[in-house]
Specification:
Helix content: 25-40%
Distance between the termini: 54 Å
Largest sheet: 4 strands, mixed
Shape: elongated
Structural class: alpha/beta
Oligomer: single chain
Strand content: 5-15%
Strand order of the largest sheet: 1-2-3-4
Number of helices: 4
């Protein structure tokens, strides 16, 4: 059983217990969605080109950007979205230390999430592939 997070919750739950009111603390996890708009950094190709590629340029990879990109990929699986990292071996924000003392890098995150990536610049093969 989970414990209340604060004294106010503890007081209310204690009151319910004293009155014999059945209850369950934090019984469910409900997903919710907030409508937002994704604005890619770059679109390679012409404005009306069907098979265009979006490119995200990332120096510091913040947690909110990680969540956003995972959500975009899930909602638009057919879009070609790629990353160019300033430093692909930089640690992502919020990464937990692993047993070996290292933390997840930008490159590892992109690989894990199924994003194509490069470091420093857009590779020539992206332009002609």
């Amino acid at each position: 059983m989970r414990m209340p997070k604060g004294t106010f919750e503890e007081r209310v739950i204690s009151d319910l217990n004293e009155r014999g009111v059945p209850h369950i603390y934090e019984p469910d996890k409900l997903a919710y969605y907030v409508e937002r708009h994704y604005v890619p950094d770059l679109k390679l190709g012409t404005e009306n080109q069907v098979n265009s590629m979006y490119v995200e340029l990332k120096g510091y990879f913040r947690q909110d950007a990680q969540r956003k990109m995972k959500a975009i990929k899930a909602q638009y699986p057919d879009l070609d979205i790629r990353f160019v990292f300033q430093n692909a071996n930089a640690t992502i924000q919020g990464a937990k230390k692993r047993k070996d003392g290292t933390k997840m890098t930008c490159a590892e995150w992109a690989d894990l999430q199924g994003f194509v990536w490069s470091e420093g610049t857009i590779p020539e093969e992206w332009l002609h592939g």
